[in-house]
User: What shape does this take?
Amino acid sequence: MSTVLDPSTPLDPGPAVGPSSSERARRTRVRRALVVLVLVLLVGCAAHLLWDLRGSWAYALDLRSRQLGALVVVGAAVGASSLAFQTVAGSRILTPGVMGFDTLYVLIQTVTVFAFGAGALQLFGVVESFVLDTALLTVFGVLLFRWLFRRHSRNLFVLVLVGIVLGSLFASLSTLASRMLSPDDYLTLQAVLFASFTTVDVRLLLVCAATSAAGLAALVPLLRRLDVVDLGRDAAVALGVDYRRTVTRVLVVVTLLVATSTALVGPMLFLGLLVANLTRQFLPTHTHVVLVPAAAVTGAATTVLGQVVVTHVLDLATPLSVVVNLVGGVYFLVLLLRSVRL
Amino acid sequence: MIHVDHVSHAYTPSGPPVLDDVALDITRGAVTALVGPNGAGKSTLLAAVSRLLGPDHGRVVVDGVDVARAPDREVARVLAVLRQDTRLSARLTVVDLVRFGRFPHSGGRLTTADHEVVAASLAHVGMADLRDRYLDELSGGQRQRAFIAMVLAQETPYVLLDEPLNNLDMEHAASVMRVLRTAADDLGRTVVVVLHDVNMAAAWADDVVGMRDGRVVARGRPAEVLRTDVLREVFGIEIPVVTVDGSPVALHWLPRAGRHPMGVGQRY
Assistant: This one.
């Protein structure tokens, strides 16, 4: 017990001013973990490109590198943005996916097909329709999240409930709309709604990569403020952070990032949750300058390795999104049951 | 000086006011205790002063800075506040937490001078040797002192605390009050603290403000407020007051305390 107080020397700096030895040890662990993450990602990339390479190398490498690009972009964008979202939401179990974002995507797609017919999806070029999708998703996503956080700011249980209810509401609205589609339109819709990395348009990939890079860059100046936001609204305001503006800016960027990925490959409900929590478990630090880039690397490593497993172990029998949702869903349950720092 | 300029606030538009036209000046350099029954508006007043809550009417000016209008970072260099609910989602060590106190000055990039202030605050609250412990490994009293070290590291002339003694045992409660007392005496901070126990207020504060139903109903030095007639105004019950070693002690825990002066009913 150290209740020893010496009021006669109020501003005498103690012996330890800089980082102590245990703090330095912790930093070394963080650095080591980062190196391991990057190595895992590189090994995954190499495995994806080179494992079981047969036939025309040029053809296979071209196909695989496009796929790899999509995997890395989606993993990095979803990972980094989900971690930032968790911080803003003040909870480790809330990610855009859990809050009904993916079902919102499904709803928007279904309503588009329902209202304008499947022809609408082919009316525009690939890039144009992708930009349109992303824009719609970002606008509706920001509206949804702003509304949620203003109404029930940081009341976790209400937020989780509202997220689940909204998710099922969007899902049943989509089902309703899809029941009324013609069989042809329905088939076209199905192809859009399943996360798929097998066919990726190069131009689309470039647009997506550029948008994601811009989004990730926009997060950088917000990272130090995110550390403070993690303390909660009152503490953040008390420490001079413009809380509402910071939260709004983070939400806009995060929504843009998730929307881009979802529009590129389709919904991956539990990817963000899985990656963000793995990152926090793996790295013993609270600084977002480290956490957010690490989540990007973890995300990319997860999607790439997941795809390697799907391709070579499961022989493409199941799509990556199913595997990620299975693992992520189980992990979500474990988190809920352990209720660590809800 | 903290100048509370006729502040009123209600949590629901039609509901009763939590703050009812409060006008209050708090001068520099003293420890001021806010006391009163539950729901008197003490915490709401503290939240309004620290701009965590925007009141419906009135304004708060601290050293010429209108806290609701001024930029957040500027206000954060004038006043620091510690709220009751200090649950954290991040797992932090003591020194991690205290470093946050430097955020209004450094924006998250700490200089050597910042590290020195952090070390000094830790020493001031007697936590220097626990700096690398995680907060969830600490006792309630240690945890509270770590949070106070963060608020002190903010180096603001004004420090506001909302019931910092909640859930603390006698020894830890006294040690927290001692930290606040020395912050005022040795570091020249102006401390405003919401307290539940009038005797704590009497023993440690220079100035006691009694609130009831959203209004300030009593104000003065401890000896002026700890009187049976004044406490009746604030708490609505009869509390015998005795003098021990020259200090007033309110015997609010006695069975005969609380009887209404007319002899009918308990409390109110």
Q: What stands out?
A: The first strand of chain B starts at residue 2 and ends at 9. Chain B touches chain A through 59 residues (CB under 8 Å). The mean pLDDT of chain B is 91. Chain B is about 30% helix and 25% strand.
